[in-house]
Design a protein that fits this description.
There is one protein chain. The protein has 164 residues and is mainly α. The protein has 2 helices and no strands.
Length: 164
């Protein structure tokens, strides 16, 4: 039973050792432990503040990136619109030039055709007149081969002259 009930001397010595240990710990160990805890708390708080600042900065950067992306898309759309409009203008100009060129070629062809047509008609008239003269000459030679037919023709011309 002595184990269960300690003696008063032991309790006093334990109390003295506890107070002495408490005093030594408070003087020697308590301040460094507390300062290291404060330093650690400060470093944790700094890390939290830095993380919060980084989070805010990331949110700001994301917003800036979103704005830049939006502006880039708008600029791209504008450039594509401008390029389409320029391409359409170029195509329209090329079509206009091609149409003018085709119209000029057609007009030149028509003029050349008309010139060739007139030349062909003139040539045909000349040939027809030559054929007519040849036929008339042959007919005259045949009909006027003898003197009697020549006299009859001269009399017919004279009669014709007197009537007119």
């Amino acid at each position: 039973m002595e184990l269960l009930t300690p003696g008063t001397g032991l309790i006093i010595w334990q109390l003295i050792v506890f107070v002495l240990l408490f005093f030594l710990l408070s003087k020697l160990a308590w301040k460094p432990i507390m300062s290291s805890l404060k330093d650690r708390e400060k470093s944790i708080q700094d890390a939290l503040d830095t993380a919060e600042n980084a989070r805010r900065e990331m949110a700001k950067l994301q917003a800036d990136n979103a704005n830049l992306l939006k502006e880039a898309r708008e600029e791209r759309d504008k450039m594509l619109r401008d390029a389409r409009e320029a391409a359409n203008r170029v195509v329209e100009e090329a079509q206009g030039i091609a149409k003018k060129s085709a119209d000029k070629i057609i007009e030149d062809a028509r003029a050349a055709i008309n010139i060739e047509k007139q030349a062909a008609l003139k040539d045909i008239r000349i040939q027809v007149s030559n054929f007519s003269l040849e036929i008339a000459e042959k007919l005259m030679k045949k009909n006027l081969a003898d003197d009697a037919s020549q006299k009859a023709l001269v009399e017919a011309y004279i009669k014709d002259l007197k009537i007119n």
